[in-house]
Amino acid sequence: MQRSTRMERELNILAKEPPPGISCWMVNDQIDKLEAEIQGSDGTPYNGGSYPFYPPKVRFVTKIYHPNIDGNGRICLDTLQMPPKGAWKPALNISTVLTSIQLLMSEPNPDDPLVPEISEEFKYNKPQFVQKAKEWTQQYAAGNKIGTSAAKVGNMLLVINK
Questions:
Q1: To bridge 60 with a disulfide, which of 17, 73, 81, 131 should be the other Cys (CB 3.0-4.6 Å)?
Q2: What average pLDDT does the segment 125-130 reach?
Q3: How many CA atoms within 13 Å lie on the side-chain side of 92?
């Protein structure tokens, strides 16, 4: 049996009957590139995460020209931070986080920037900001293929870790 055929069969089995606490998927529809999530077993130091009591860790993989998103993909957004500075609470969910990021993309907050230079440009030379943002979108975000391990917001790739 060919390697790829066997891997496809095994992934189908994993998708239909995953072992408890384990999930596995292809990256960019490439059978030879897989990602997996394994939850730590009870009684081990790897058990338990902090979500939803702490916000998920979210970052952009796709480069974006934005005053609230830096070159490492970190996002300055109150719903991704704990109080008192942030607004995260366990009642919020991933949908709320993604919607908040989408809104931030539409309406940057130049008064709480992560990248001050871009914030200044947004405030005082918006046409130049818009032009650069469009150029970056064309260069880095046009035609991205989205794998199941990333979320799609516009044409941007995000990684969400809970």
A1: 73
A2: 97
A3: 21
Amino acid at residue number 110: P
| pTM assigned to the model | 0.65
- With bands split at pLDDT 50, 70 and 90, how would you rate the model's confidence at 40? low
Name the residue with tokens 């150029």: 135
Token readout for 138 is 């064309």
Q: Is 17 exposed, middle or buried (0-12, 13-18, 19+ CB in 10 A)?
A: exposed
pLDDT reported for residue 154: 45
- Cα–Cα distance measured from residue 93 to residue 79, given in angstroms and rounded to the nearest whole number: 10
The two tokens of residue 89 are 């609470």
| pLDDT tens, residue by residue, 53-79 | 788 888 888 899 999 999 999 999 999
Pairing of strands 57-60, 156-161: antiparallel
Q: By C-alpha distance, which of 60, 5, 70 is closest to 31?
A: 5
User: What pLDDT is recorded for position 151?
Assistant: 45
Contact residues for 42 (Cβ-Cβ < 8 A; gap 6+) = none
In eight-state DSSP terms, residue 101 is: H
Helix (H, G, I), strand (E, B) or coil at 92: coil
8 A C-beta contact, residue 91 and residue 79: no
For residue 33, the tally of other CB atoms under 10 A from its CB is 11
